[in-house]
């Protein structure tokens, strides 16, 4: 984690992705990318065909992960990405694939 004024800086982004985002191993590629960027959070498929992603980490790493999510893995077609920033949870340590 980066430091700013003697404290750790942590950001958290919550995304909902639409398009061809299920059935293309999106969750598994995302988990590998999150590990590479040392991101915590989770990803899961939603019943309506969207993918939900919550990512948390250093600002630069989170920005890289957001940019990756907007493109996705090789066979994905991300049509839209809705995103909001949320308060980080310092207890989160890992990235999980859910549902």
TrEMBL record:
GO terms for molecular function: acylphosphatase activity. Pfam families: Acylphosphatase. Its EC number is 3.6.1.7. It catalyses: an acyl phosphate + H2O = a carboxylate + phosphate + H(+). It comes from the Bacteria. Keywords: Hydrolase. The keyword Hydrolase applies. InterPro entries: Acylphosphatase, Acylphosphatase-like_dom, Acylphosphatase-like_dom_sf, Acylphosphatase_CS. The keyword Hydrolase applies. Residues 12-99 form the Acylphosphatase-like domain. The active site is at 27, 45. SUPFAM superfamilies: Acylphosphatase/BLUF domain-like (SSF54975). Belongs to the acylphosphatase family. This is acylphosphatase. The lineage of its organism: Bacteria, Thermotogati, Synergistota, Synergistia, Synergistales.
């Amino acid at each position: 984690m980066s430091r700013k004024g003697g404290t750790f800086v942590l950001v958290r982004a919550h995304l909902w992705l639409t398009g061809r985002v299920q059935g293309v191993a999106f969750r598994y590629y995302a988990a590998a990318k999150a590990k590479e960027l040392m991101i915590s959070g989770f990803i899961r498929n939603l019943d309506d065909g969207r993918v939900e992603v919550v990512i948390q980490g250093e600002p630069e790493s989170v920005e890289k992960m957001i940019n990756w999510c907007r493109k996705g893995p090789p066979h994905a077609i991300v049509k839209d990405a809705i995103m909001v920033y949320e308060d980080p949870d310092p207890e989160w340590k890992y990235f999980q694939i859910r549902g």
